[in-house]
Write a structure and sequence with these properties.
291 residues, hydrolase activity, metal-binding, 15% strand, alpha/beta, hydrolase, Phosphotriesterase-related protein, Metal_Hydrolase
């Protein structure tokens, strides 16, 4: 197919090393990122959705340099992640004040720059529980979404609590067709995936290659089943690389694994070009109103 592939959930830079007490979780290998993104560009990747937000080590200058060196379009995010990675302002401000910060980053720019956030995310919930501050973030994010129309990307811990997240969004009249629930492949539960999709949200298979959680063979089987049932227009894909050790040069899979290793599995399952085009190109274009 004529490709213009879009990676739906990545972190150009991210720093969760303090809370995790693990230097591997500080993704600041700019030169390696540039080399890997150049390789992606040569394989037809046009755009990357960068979901690093407030308190996660976001840097517009860093991203700007990567864009300049690689020619890849990178859309940046506003929002707050999840416990225990939330910045102090989440505890101090009310939801309206938080929503204004997010809205300003969308309308005016991020951190005093003219780079405007194009997505609210990734905003997350903890394992089997929505913490009080996480609920606050979801409320503020919903307000910013209603104000600006920008899409929302969530984090689901191990793919769980997607239905609970949807219920929160419904209370605020969020447009579910503009919501993407991340890491749903980690749930390992096809029936649950279908229940989510039937609400009208989008789901991400964005931990491809992380076989210690779920084997890629199963990911391919689930995608085959979902495509056969007509859901390919609500699914997006990515790698969600967050550690130095994930880079190819450092012994990891690298960003190109999705194209070089996982796509052939999908073709082996006889998933049609039309479905693959939806999951890698068309759906993100529709969610973000990209041309």
């Amino acid at each position: 197919m004529e490709r213009e592939i879009i990676y739906a959930h990545e972190h150009v830079t991210i720093d969760l090393s303090g809370v995790k007490k693990d230097a591997d979780c500080f993704l600041n290998n700019k030169n390696q990122t540039i080399e890997e993104f150049k390789a992606l560009r040569s394989k037809g990747v046009s755009t990357i959705i960068d979901v690093t937000n407030r308190g996660m080590g976001r840097s517009t200058e860093y991203v700007r340099e990567v864009i300049k060196e690689t020619g890849i379009n990178i859309l940046q995010a506003t929002g707050y992640y999840k416990e225990p990675f939330l910045p102090e302002e989440v505890y101090k401000l009310d939801t309206k004040e938080m929503a204004k910060i997010l809205t300003d980053e969308i309308v005016i720019g991020i951190d005093g720059t003219n780079t405007k956030a194009e997505v609210i995310g990734e905003i997350g919930t903890s394992l089997n529980k929505v913490e009080e501050m996480e609920l606050k973030v979801f409320e503020a994010s919903s307000r910013a979404h209603i104000e600006t129309g920008k899409p929302i990307i969530t984090h689901t811990t191990l793919g769980k609590l997607g239905l609970e997240q949807i219920e929160i969004f419904k209370k605020f009249n969020v447009n579910l067709s503009k919501v993407t629930l991340s890491h749903i492949d980690l749930s390992g539960d096809l029936d649950y995936m279908i229940r989510l999709l039937d609400t009208g949200v989008n789901i991400a298979f964005d931990t491809i290659g992380k076989n210690n959680y779920q084997p890629d063979e199963d990911r391919a089987k689930w995608l085959k089943e979902l495509c056969d049932r007509g859901y390919s227009n609500q699914i997006v894909m990515s790698m969600d690389i967050t550690r130095k050790s994930h880079f190819k040069e450092n012994g990891g899979l690298g960003y190109s694994y999705l194209i070089d290793n996982f796509l052939p599995r999908l073709y082996e399952k006889e998933i049609s070009n039309k479905h693959i085009e939806n999951m890698l190109v068309n759906n993100i274009k529709n969610i973000y109103n990209l041309k």
